[in-house]
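Milestone M4 deliverable, item 7.
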Amino acid sequence: MKLLFLYNEMRFKTTNLLPDMFKANGFDIEFFWTSKGEFPSKLKAYQTVYLSGSLANPGDPYLWIPRLEELIRESSNLALPTLGSCFGSQILATALCGQDQTFRRSNCALGYSDIILNHTEPEDPLLKGLGASVRMFVWHNIQVKSGHPDMRILGYNSDCSNHIWRYKDLPIWGIQGHPELDPASARATFLQYRPFFEKEGVSVANLAKTVEPNTEAIKLFINFMDYCKSF
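Output delivered:
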């Protein structure tokens, strides 16, 4: 199965964490660095799409962002199974539900957070096998709104009303947090982004002491991959 990996980061090269995970589950990855102007010439060559995080925000004055949003709309018209995390979730929201679907929080959401899961009937494929809540690392100043009629809210808590969502009944999901981060990769991420955490007044050394297993949270990614392979 061919996966279109849209890498949206501005400053850093991707770690191998997510590409290795997809490869280990049988996906043939084609990788495009969107913020450097890399985009696929056509979408029909792919069976699934992943949108990464970024230090950029929806609405920033970069030429690649409107181009990415247009690509997302083309992908949704083909109903390609799609998952966006962090910025990937935010850009899905603005591309599919409107430019007013994200806003800047009054404070940065940063740290491990318990997220209540909104199980539905029939069971949403992304939440398969998960309990009433899931805990994951979150880090975001931009938040996706929760009131749009085309959004099905699958995860939320008192601090953020839209942690996990689905677009209509299509196989398109957004996750605000980072369920992929196991303890080792979390510590590596904290070091890589040290200046940005410190800008929020957070000690990276203290943050590293809080790392937790992602045994349950990673099921969100596993469920997405399982769905893609059965689609």
